[in-house]
Write a structure and sequence with these properties.
There is one protein chain. The chain is an alpha+beta fold. The protein folds into two domains: about 5-75, Orthogonal Bundle (Arc Repressor Mutant, subunit A), CATH 1.10.10.10; about 85-250, GAF domain (Beta-Lactamase). Helices cover about 45% and strands about 20% of the residues. The protein contains ten helices and nine strands. It has helices at about 5-25, 30-35, 40-55, 70-85, 85-100, 140-150, 155-160, 175-190, 230-235, 240-250, and strands at about 30, 55-60, 65-70, 105-110, 115-120, 135, 190-195, 200-210, 215-225. The strands form two sheets. Strands 6-5-4-9-8-7 form a six-stranded antiparallel sheet, with helices on both faces. A three-stranded antiparallel sheet has the order 1-3-2. Strand 8 (about 200-210) and strand 9 form a beta hairpin. The two termini are about 30 Å apart.
């Protein structure tokens, strides 16, 4: 193994540990991290100690639990300002939420998956999977399909290999062939629909955020439930959501965001 490979391997292991702590959603004990871990006990302990010394994790010595450290919080704020559409999109999201009275999401593509970067709750909030900072599937969500539809061919093929195509509901598109046909239809009409494909009772309309040159930066959606609306009703917001997407793209035109 080359020296560079060894260094990358160590960094990768440390990032894996960080992600496991973050995914727990609460302070977590060593035994919980060790359970199901790919690392031997001594390796995991060494990685945790290093992450604590570097301020990426915090150790509560009394409770014996690990949580995300303040250095990581500082880095996250820097990433939010430099790489997220959210700060630039805030005024447009506020206007769209006020106009529709429904839940509004802003998302970007991360390793072929949907990363929700901002959200406005409906006038009458409903419980759903999405929240800022959460990662969801691209192939069965409105924002995900809106972004996939406007990827260059090579990037799309790479993203498709990262989809699980798990069938969440009866309307989930669970094959690459079915999804590609849907993406073609999205490009034709300029917006995507979620027909309860990820969560029963949750529907949405979504539009991509595209630069003047056609570079896809993200997507936003207006979401409601079948208990108080339908897809035909959501489509009346198609022009409004496309206008909001265009506003965000114009403000973000000169920014260098990470490529999906």
């Amino acid at each position: 193994m080359k020296q560079g490979d060894a260094v990358d391997g160590t960094v990768g292991k440390a990032l894996d540990v960080l992600e496991r702590v973050a995914a727990s959603g609460k302070p977590v004990r060593f035994a919980e991290l060790l359970e199901g871990s790919a690392f031997p006990k001594a390796t995991l302990y060494r990685l945790l100690q290093t992450l604590v010394r570097q301020g990426m994790l915090a150790l509560d010595a009394d409770l014996g639990t690990y949580s995300l450290g303040m250095r990581l919080v500082r880095l996250a704020h820097g990433a939010w300002a430099q790489s997220s559409l959210a700060p630039l999109a805030r005024p447009s999201l506020d206007r769209l939420a006020a106009q529709t009275g429904e839940t509004v999401h802003l998302a970007q593509l991360d390793q072929g998956q949907v990363l929700y970067v901002d959200k406005r709750h409906a006038a009458r909030p409903v419980e759903m999977f999405s929240s800022a900072g959460k990662v969801g599937p691209a192939y069965c969500t409105g924002v995900g399909k809106a972004m996939l539809a406007y990827l260059p061919e090579a990037a799309l093929e790479a993203a498709l290999t990262r989809q699980s195509f798990h069938r969440f509901t009866d309307t989930t598109l669970d094959t690459p062939r079915a999804l590609k046909a849907e993406l073609q239809a999205i490009r034709a009409r300029g917006h995507a629909l979620d027909r309860e494909e990820h969560e029963p009772g949750i529907i949405c309309i979504a539009a991509p955020v595209l630069t003047r040159g056609g570079r896809m930066l993200g997507a936003l959606s207006v979401t409601t439930t079948t208990a108080r609306g339908n897809l035909e009703g959501l489509e009346r917001w198609a022009d409004a959501i496309k206008q909001a997407a265009a506003e965000i793209a114009e403000v973000a035109e000169g920014w260098q965001f990470p490529q999906p």
